[in-house]
Amino acid sequence: MKLSWKQGLGVWAATTSCLLLAVWLRYYLTDNGFIKEPNQTYDYIVVGAGTSGCVLAAKLAASNSKVLVIEAGGEPPWYSWIPIVAPILQGSEQYDWRFRTVPQKFAAGALHGNQAFWPQGKMVGGSGQMNFLIHATGSPSDYDSWKVPGWDSHTMKTALDGLTCWTKGIVKPFVARPSFLLDGESEMCRAPVLAENSTSCSENAQHFQCPSAAVKLQRVNATEKPLLKAFLDAGRACGHSVSEMDRWSDTGSFMASHNTIDGKAGQRWSTYSSHLMPAMKRYSNLHVLTKSSVTKLVWRRNKVIGIQYLDADGRIKHVKAGKEILLSAGTIKTTQILQQSGIGPPHVLEPLDIPIKADLPVGENLQDHLQVPLFVELNASVSLNIVKMLHPRQFWNYMVHGKGALATSGIEGIATLTKKREDGKPSEPYGMLILFNMGSINADVYTSVANIKKEVNFDPTFMVEKQG
Ligand SMILES: Cc1cc2nc3c(=O)[nH]c(=O)nc-3n(C[C@H](O)[C@H](O)[C@H](O)COP(=O)(O)OP(=O)(O)OC[C@H]3O[C@@H](n4cnc5c(N)ncnc54)[C@H](O)[C@@H]3O)c2cc1C
């Protein structure tokens, strides 16, 4: 049967609508665990259902305790699951806290009002529901500098190896069950074999995943990505090492990005999907209250016994915790809740007439990482752009197979840059290069989400792929 182009378009539109409806139904009909009114008392209250809150809540619920998760935002939008879509959530009234720095005197000159935008997720899943999905281990020297027992680089490396099933040489079971896995999850985690001394990014390493791992990773394949290949070649040409995977080293290297994407479904793999969602289905003792914003902790003498929050209608309410309250409301809001509860330095609390319960350096030592975008002109059509992304074939490939441009984060390569120290100590990382594979339209998206002034001149040196 031959269809006219109009009929073809109709069939395509109908198929796409059905598939979108199916995705919508899948996420919105599986919300068991969400509640409208909490009980008066729980064993544990987890404040913030972001990256860390989702894991904490799932682990606590597995121990049979009564757990309340209280989240200021609502459920994430369905499109947050499509990996490439993340940037559009930044700046959203509904899903981003839209934090801005105060105008800077000595920085942010290219930004409107000299103010940097600090996006932060406001939804179940938190920032993990809108981030760029790059999986990179932190710098060992950072962990060691904290000097907190159990958080040193050696212990963290072992824990992270377990979480992400990094195996080299042979496929092997974990020696110890990673404590991050949920009950009932497989202890045996299989990963593709990576040859011990392999330097090629193409070998065996496409979808670096475990069937039931807490962290699912999709590795970008350099043989399929000319830009990534050029990036790695450039690293090599500059004398840097090019590694197979995140080697957890302070020496710096260029590598293909591994992104937290469920490669089978082509979906964002946040801790909402890995931990909270399965726990909500499994445990009736886990309650999740959304659109409710915690304002402060409630004290009885010198003990915190509960929380005060504003419900969805702006009414002040309280819930008690028999055992503990866990603050996982993100860098800024956790600090704010603590300070509003009287925990913080006097020079901050006293001018606000907040009675001091504990004089602690809460809110100090804040560190930011700056991004400096460089848009590069390409002489071949090898980047992603909106025309390629919206091609019907991409929709079909994504909806039916979970593959294609929509199933990628757009991040293809990362490099850590280090500087040698003369005192013989290990080199110190000082920067990270990230290869974003995006086309011209995304330059506009990027400048708007990053608050960059229009007059900042990206043209003609820093522009994007020539079309046609
Ligand atoms: C745009 C963007 C891109 C990023 N890209 C990457 C990346 O590629 N790789 C990477 O490793 N990291 C990335 N990050 C950082 C990473 O996502 C965060 O470090 C991580 O998600 C922080 O987790 P968290 O649990 O501390 O906070 P969040 O995940 O931010 O969770 C905090 C939660 O608490 C809720 N909350 C706040 N205040 C209250 C309140 N008063 N009452 C109730 N609930 C409250 C918030 O709504 C939110 O859901 C990115 C972050 C952003 C914003």
TrEMBL record:
Residues annotated as domain Glucose-methanol-choline oxidoreductase N-terminal: 42-370
Protein name in the entry: Glucose-methanol-choline oxidoreductase N-terminal domain-containing protein
InterPro entries attached to this UniProt entry: FAD/NAD-bd_sf (IPR036188), GMC_OxRdtase (IPR012132), GMC_OxRdtase_N (IPR000172)
Alphabetical list of SUPFAM superfamilies matching this protein: FAD/NAD(P)-binding domain
Pfam families cross-referenced by the UniProt entry: GMC_oxred_N
Coiled-coil ranges (or none): none
Record-annotated membrane-spanning stretches: 9-29
Recorded family membership: Belongs to the GMC oxidoreductase family.
Keywords in alphabetical order: Membrane, Transmembrane, Transmembrane helix
Biological source species: Daphnia magna
Source species, domain of life: Eukaryota
